[in-house]
Design the sequence.
């Protein structure tokens, strides 16, 4: 039987210490010749050989695309917990090119001489089985609890998990004996066999043993790739098995693939001419012959291990994932799940994450989501949502992170097209060479998709307005899967709604912005005494309102650290590269309270936004935040804010200046409507009810809220976020564009059809 794996080819090289450069050269030639894999034997007790790990790392650094494995690693001399880390590290360093193949060991005297422990055949199987558990346990970086493992051979008492490998590293085992073959059937991802060690007929019998053990363990035998080490001799005259001309090699190997399920052939040879002939004559011809004999080979979707499938959530038709998404889809049992389950602010456990690369895939993903109307649906661009969840429990996530292109459409009009998965630091870096910037937020990791559908309050707000004020058109996939363009001239109602309430109306697949000319800016971080927060806030607010529009400032307060004075951070951007202007603008702000520290530079907008940490999100729990817009920092408001701070319920309190260009825009021009405010206020706490209680004291001062900083998703908040006329219009548009309320997870606007004529 064939197991459905696309046919692959590898080389098997001797890691000779005498001529290390030759081994590396052959590895590079393997890549050039088109082999998929280069492997090296591992005998750490052999002084004639290089250490295989070191060699593999070196080769990984010298090659670009070929995958790398040992053939096979000597487990008795390589503790599994360390192996797991080494494998993950090399996989990360090589961009996902490392595969792990293990062997139970042989040559026990030599192993013992190196300090290894002799294992008889039975215990060898048990030790290998335990090693697989330990290795997979340590790779499971999404699991927060430290790994504890109490085996007969290996004990781990609280090891931190990770690093997460770059790809799902398969574990292959090199073996011939029935007990080991049964272990492969139960647990491994591949079997490494060596023709020659196996007598005729033994390969087939061994496959049957593996298959039977797999079935007994509830697995599908197709989960296990069969890798076959082969050796032979090319000659002009036909001889025995793999001893003759190239076409004979093809004829010899074909039945092993078609009838016996070999998925990978690994050529044992250090002879370049043999490798070349194999690559030139055998590999393509064998591929053609296999395609002819098995036309559908490789077209079956990726098959997950049974233990991974067991982690699937109920209610999701996993087998119906559209063909365009099946390879990229990430399920709870996949290693990559740790990278995508949570967002910056919250922990999540979705049932499936569908990464999409283009608009058509968005349409497919949405169709899949529509077929699951009762499940939560999250739309994720860069995962910094606060009001928007972009993860969930047991539902579907459509992840647009890979749709992150940034393209200049017209330099003359500064028209730029940006995809939703781009992060603002990348946008800023892409625009900087043109001398341009786009008013965005304060944190470079935030995504374009979430921010540019809500508002966008950032360092250039007073001078250049909100991000949405620069939007000229969007392309969207609507709830029914249709694609529309919206601008002032096309679907203007939808374009109005997208600018402030976009998350309710569809998935934006590209944004067209008109950006501004912005050169170097002044960037200041001042630390001031906040022992009288009310006075500080009032003075800061007055100074900001009196400042020219080229200044935008944020102030942040929190509970004082034990034994330290209460301080406030003032973060301010001045759109000027003139030191005098910058100092003049900053002086009134610095006078608001005693100044403890200051850092002022002239730099680019892009360098200010280059502040996000790399790596995947690992948020936990749920954020608890409230938001309000206020026209002025009056003494009464400042006092109320000081009481809020004293309550101890707020760990982060921030006021951002808006006003200026934000207020120039007609409040009816965009769904974001509260344009008179000079300040946007946000507070984060631990407990929603307790935060609400203290926040309510501030509510009388607010006129509107910015939904991006709000986590109270009760319908009343919609009435705070949108004036009555706007909300009515949004509800009617929701009824038109998303009557079934597909997009409901971010400040849901219930669809309400208006009477005819309104
Ligand atoms: C550290 C941090 C700093 C921030 N700084 C600022 C700031 O300075 N200024 C500011 O205005 N905001 C700021 N925010 C808030 C931020 O704008 C929102 O949280 C925004 O939604 C994040 O966008 P995202 O794409 O990263 O989020 P995601 O979590 O990917 O998306 C959030 C929500 O937006 C919607 N959404 C995402 N992509 C699309 C799309 N393509 N089409 C339609 N809807 C979509 C979905 O409802 C989703 O749940 C900040 C947030 C954080 C966590």
Sequence:
């Amino acid at each position: 039987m064939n197991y459905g794996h696309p046919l692959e080819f590898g080389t098997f090289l001797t890691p000779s210490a005498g001529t290390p450069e030759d081994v590396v050269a052959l590895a590079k030639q393997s890549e050039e010749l088109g082999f998929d894999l280069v492997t090296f034997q591992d005998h750490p007790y052999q002084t004639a050989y290089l250490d295989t790990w070191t060699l593999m790392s070196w080769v990984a650094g010298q090659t670009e695309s070929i995958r790398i494995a040992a053939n096979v690693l000597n487990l008795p001399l390589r503790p599994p917990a360390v192996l797991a880390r080494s494998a993950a590290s090399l996989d990360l360093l090589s961009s996902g090119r490392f595969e792990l193949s293990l062997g139970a060991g042989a040559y026990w005297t030599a192993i013992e001489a190196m300090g290894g422990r002799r294992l008889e055949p039975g215990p060898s199987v048990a030790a290998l089985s335990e090693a697989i558990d330990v290795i997979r346990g340590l790779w499971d970086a999404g699991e927060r609890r430290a790994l504890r493992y109490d085996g007969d051979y290996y004990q781990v008492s609280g090891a931190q998990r990770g690093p997460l490998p770059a790809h799902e590293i398969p574990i292959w085992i090199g073996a011939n004996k029935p007990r080991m073959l049964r272990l492969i059937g139960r647990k491994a991802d591949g079997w490494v066999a060596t023709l020659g060690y196996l007598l005729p007929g033994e390969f087939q019998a061994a496959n049957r043993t593996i298959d039977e053990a797999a079935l007994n363990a509830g697995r599908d035998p197709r989960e296990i790739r069969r890798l076959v080490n082969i050796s032979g001799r090319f000659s002009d005259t036909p001889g025995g098995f793999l001893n003759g001309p190239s076409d004979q090699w093809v004829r010899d190997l074909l039945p092993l693939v078609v009838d016996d399920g070999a998925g990978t052939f690994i050529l044992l040879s250090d002879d370049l001419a043999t490798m070349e002939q194999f690559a030139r004559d055998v590999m393509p011809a064998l591929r053609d012959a296999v395609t002819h004999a098995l036309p559908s080979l490789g077209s079956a979707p990726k098959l997950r291990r049974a233990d991974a499938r067991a982690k699937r959530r109920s209610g999701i038709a996993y087998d119906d994932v559209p063909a365009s998404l099946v390879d990229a889809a990430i399920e709870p049992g996949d290693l990559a799940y740790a990278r995508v389950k949570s967002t910056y602010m919250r922990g999540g456990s979705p049932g499936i994450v569908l990464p999409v690369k283009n608009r058509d895939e968005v349409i497919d993903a949405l169709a899949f989501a529509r077929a699951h109307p009762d499940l939560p649906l999250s739309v994720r661009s860069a995962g910094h949502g606060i009001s928007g969840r972009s993860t969930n429990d047991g539902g579907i996530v459509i992840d647009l992170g890979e749709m992150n292109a940034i393209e200049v459409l017209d330099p003359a009009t500064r028209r730029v097209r940006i995809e939703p998965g781009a992060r603002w630091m990348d946008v800023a870096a892409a625009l900087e060479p043109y001398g341009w910037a786009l008013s965005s937020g304060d944190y470079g990791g935030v995504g374009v998709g979430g921010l540019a559908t809500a508002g966008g309050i950032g360092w250039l707000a007073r001078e250049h307005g909100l991000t949405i004020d620069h939007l000229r058109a969007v392309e969207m996939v609507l709830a029914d899967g249709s694609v529309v363009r919206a601008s002032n001239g096309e679907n203007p109602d939808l374009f109005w709604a997208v600018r402030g309430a976009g998350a309710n109306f569809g998935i934006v697949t590209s944004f067209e912005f008109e950006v501004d000319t912005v050169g170097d800016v002044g960037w200041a971080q001042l630390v001031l005494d906040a022992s009288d927060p009310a006075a500080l806030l009032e003075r800061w607010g007055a100074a900001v309102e009196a400042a020219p529009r080229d200044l935008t400032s944020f102030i942040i307060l929190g509970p004082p650290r034990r034994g330290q004075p209460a301080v406030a951070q003032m973060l301010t951007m001045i759109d000027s590269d003139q030191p005098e202007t910058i100092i003049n603008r900053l002086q009134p702000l610095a006078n608001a309270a005693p100044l403890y520290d200051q850092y002022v530079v002239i730099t680019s907008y892009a360098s200010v936004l280059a502040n996000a940490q790399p790596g995947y999100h690992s948020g936990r729990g749920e954020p608890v935040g409230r938001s309000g817009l206020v026209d002025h920092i009056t003494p009464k408001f400042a006092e109320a804010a000081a009481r809020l701070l004293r309550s101890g319920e707020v760990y982060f309190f921030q006021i951002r200046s808006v006003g200026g260009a934000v207020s120039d825009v007609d409040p009816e021009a965009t769904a974001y409507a509260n344009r008179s405010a000079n300040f946007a206020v946000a507070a984060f706490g631990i407990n929603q009810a307790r935060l609400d209680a203290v926040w309510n004291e501030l509510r009388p001062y607010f006129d509107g809220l910015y939904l991006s900083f709000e986590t109270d998703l009760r319908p009343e908040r919609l009435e705070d976020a949108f004036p009555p006329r706007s909300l009515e219009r949004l509800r009617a548009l929701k009824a038109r564009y998303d009557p079934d309320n597909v997009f409901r997870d971010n400040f849901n606007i219930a669809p309400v059809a208006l009477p005819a004529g309104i």
Q: What stands out?
A: The two ends are 67 Å apart (CA to CA). The mean pLDDT is 95.
